[in-house]
């Protein structure tokens, strides 16, 4: 097992990934600028953390010339859709330009392969659901567009320089480390499950339910929630896939089961034993009624299968983490 560089290792998914790789015995170097991540998300003090910017070419040259890496996992990006509309320059600079710097450094130092954290936002408004890899890509916001541009760069770098990569398109990452050590810590928080749990705990205002008139069984939006540890497992399998000499690829990641906003709130009530304070609000522009992943390709090619597909389990792990967080605040 070779050494792996985890970029964005102090964020939500990156820290879960680092914990799983460490537990499996991999040799790791972690890179994070701590702009949105937390050093306390590193599960073991013996792990090597380099505090720095993935867009810092001098830092990357130093890392790649002094360490022999057998793979790079790239999680570092800005992820707020609404913010990307207001600050597109920031998203193109942070997501696209800095990734270009990483790719150029990897090519120059003959480092590879790369596993890239992409998103379902590359598809834009869905033409059908569940969404497979053949669905057209037409992002409708700068966040999705930035990830789409990076996917295109990866294709071009493969053709021109032979840099192999897998882009994994997440749908709705959710849950927390089953051992309760790490979970979501976004600021601001925009994800449904932590917002609902925060409302239950009384640390945030009542949850807003945006629209109850969608063409779904209960009128609320349906989304595909995938447990964060299942996401991490997919990254490791993607890395092993490329180590085996397979070609670059793109995979959609979801658990294949859509849950409506109301079904998530019902799950939160079952798990916590408390109702979720909420209030109805108008639909948000650009919110599709139904977004569910077709992950058959990842299952077939990577041998990946989500272990925590049940919504109550996803919520239970998040609930254990959020209770711990409140005690630490």
From TrEMBL:
Subunit structure: Homodimer.
The protein, known as: UDP-glucose 4-epimerase
Necessary cofactors: NAD(+)
Organism in which the protein naturally occurs: Salinicola acroporae
InterPro entries, alphabetized: Epimerase_deHydtase, NAD(P)-bd_dom_sf, UDP_G4E
Metabolic or biological pathway, per its Swiss-Prot or TrEMBL entry: Carbohydrate metabolism; galactose metabolism
Family: Belongs to the NAD(P)-dependent epimerase/dehydratase family.
Keyword entries, A-Z: Carbohydrate metabolism, Isomerase, NAD
Domain NAD-dependent epimerase/dehydratase: 4-254
Pfam families (alphabetical): Epimerase
Presence of keyword Cell wall biogenesis/degradation: no
EC number(s) stated in the UniProt entry for this protein: 5.1.3.2
Lineage of the organism: Bacteria, Pseudomonadati, Pseudomonadota, Gammaproteobacteria, Oceanospirillales
Catalytic activity: UDP-alpha-D-glucose = UDP-alpha-D-galactose
């Amino acid at each position: 097992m070779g050494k792996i560089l985890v970029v964005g290792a102090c964020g939500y998914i990156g820290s879960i990934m680092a914990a799983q790789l460490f537990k499996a015995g991999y040799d790791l170097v972690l890179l994070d600028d701590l702009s949105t991540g937390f050093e306390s998300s590193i599960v073991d003090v013996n792990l090597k953390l380099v505090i720095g910017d993935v867009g810092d070419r001098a830092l990357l040259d130093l890392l790649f010339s002094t360490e022999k890496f057998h793979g790079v996992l790239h999680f570092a990006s800005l992820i707020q859709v609404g913010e990307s509309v207001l600050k597109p320059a920031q998203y193109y600079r942070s997501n696209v330009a800095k990734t270009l710097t990483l790719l150029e450094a990897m090519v120059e130092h003959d480092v590879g392969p790369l596993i890239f954290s992409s998103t379902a936002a590359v598809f834009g408004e869905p033409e059908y659901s569940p969404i497979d890899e053949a669905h057209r890509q037409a992002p409708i916001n700068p966040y999705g567009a930035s990830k789409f541009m990076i996917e295109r760069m990866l294709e071009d770098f493969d053709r021109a320089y032979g840099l192999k990569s897998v882009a994994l398109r997440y749908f709705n990452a959710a849950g927390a480390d089953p051992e309760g050590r790490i979970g979501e810590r976004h600021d601001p928080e925009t994800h449904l499950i932590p917002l609902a749990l925060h409302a239950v705990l009384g640390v945030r205002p009542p949850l807003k339910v945006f629209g109850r008139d969608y063409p779904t069984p209960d009128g609320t939006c349906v989304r595909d929630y995938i447990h964060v540890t299942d996401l991490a497992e997919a990254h490791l399998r993607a890395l092993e896939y490329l180590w085996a000499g397979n070609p670059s690829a793109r995979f959609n990641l979801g658990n294949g089961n859509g849950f409506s906003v109301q079904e998530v709130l019902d799950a939160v009530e079952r798990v916590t034993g408390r109702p979720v304070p909420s209030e109805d609000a108008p639909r948000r522009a650009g919110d599709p009624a139904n977004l569910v992943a077709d992950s058959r390709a990842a299952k077939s090619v990577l041998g990946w299968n989500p272990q925590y597909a049940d919504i109550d389990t996803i919520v239970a792990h998040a609930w254990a983490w959020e209770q711990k967080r409140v005690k630490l605040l």
